[in-house]
Amino acid sequence: MEEWEKKFKDNFGSAVVDKEVALKNEVDDLPRYVSEYLLGYFCQDGVTEENLKEMHQYVKECRVEGRAKEKARHKLQTNFRMKVIDKFKVKINLTKKNEQENNLEIPSMGVTDAQVYNSILKDNERLLIDGLWGLGEVKYNPEIKTIELTKFKPFQLANIKINDFVEARSEFNSEEWVNALISTIGLNYNAYSKREKMILISRLLPMVENNLFMMEFGAPGTGKTYAFENLSSYSRVISGSKVTAPQLFFNLKTKQEGLLLQYDVVLFDEIDKVKKKGIDEDVINKLYQYLASGKFDRGGVEKTSNCGVVMVGNLPKNKLNKAEMLDELLHEDLKHAAFLDRLAGVIPGWELKSIKDSNVSLTKHYGFTADYFSEILNRLRRSNYDYILNRIKFENAAIRDEQNIKKIVSGFIKLLYPNGQLTDKQLSKLTQYAVEYRQFVVDQNYNINGKEDFNKTIGFRIK
After folding, report:
1. What is the CATH number of domain 162-367?
2. For 173-207, how does the pLDDT look when each residue is reduced to its tens digit (9 = 90+)?
3. What does 316-360 look like in DSSP terms, one character per residue?
């Protein structure tokens, strides 16, 4: 154990886990933030073979596998009660007279119309937003043919104090803190250069900064979607070519809010494959509107959201033409000048190596537990560092350039200096990365669309 890890454990206590142990004992079919919550719960006195066996037995008894759906339903039908591990979600019915008020979804059992106590909803409001992983005790009433959630234990930490996290940052130097974040992601910081670490941390920017629109392209297997799928319960990964307007924005028939209204960030995966298939026209039109203002309307219904958007894709093997990258990879609908101008920046994922040897690439150190870090990332979205950002003075930059660069810098500050304590030199370094990411967009826009407005080099100074 390195010196910083001792400080890490002293300052953050149960919010810290041995990531090597956690990665080796992930529970199949569960997101990492859920798996690490269970590991922390069952191994409070240390990771032992007995504790791990108890954890896996607990999951085996309560988790319904895909093929065992009907078996689980039969068990409930005959025993009247059972415990289920799942991501539960509730929809409220206000208008349909012949249907119940609350409709609980239990995905693993194929149930969409179970009932739930209002006391459970009051204590677990995320059941009404994007859903919540947890252990539910469900009861079946054979006389009226209803299923009811009577008890619920959420798999997420409660009473997280963001101020404690912010204050503890002062106990670590910049290198130690960066290493802790890389280890939290699940990677071995010793396998990456300083610049590569910053690129990896850049993937977390949309998780802490409202309405941030970014792209990343790189080789397969570099972990472009991993953090979004496993590190945060507030993010969602979707196929770029398959999403529909009702799914993403608002379903006019069911009145169900779309993904942009449920999550902090939505990631479009394999956006390079969209070049051939394209994206639904209604999705593109609404996305144009949303990325410009954080608002959209469908059928006369206007909605506002802080959700960020990320698009990632793989580069063709042995082919890297940075000058024409977006022109070669994006569908025509995504190459209009106005659309690209809404793009805050492109993360240079092509500089990262594919993760092939787990002994080299994966962490062997401590990091934040994924469930704790997920909540911290969400809370950091509310932090404001305008008093620091105002020290940046731009040259040869349009208003949208300034806005997007400041959003990226703001995200970096939240992740690396949440206490707001950074020097002009450190602020300048963060701004260099932000300007680089934005300049790439400006250059690509000029190469594709030829508008002189984008024929420029953005400069800055710290005042």
Report:
1. 3.40.50.300
2. 999 999 999 999 999 999 999 999 999 999 999 99
3. PTT---GGGHHHHHS-GGG-SHHHHHT--EEE-GGGSPP---HHH
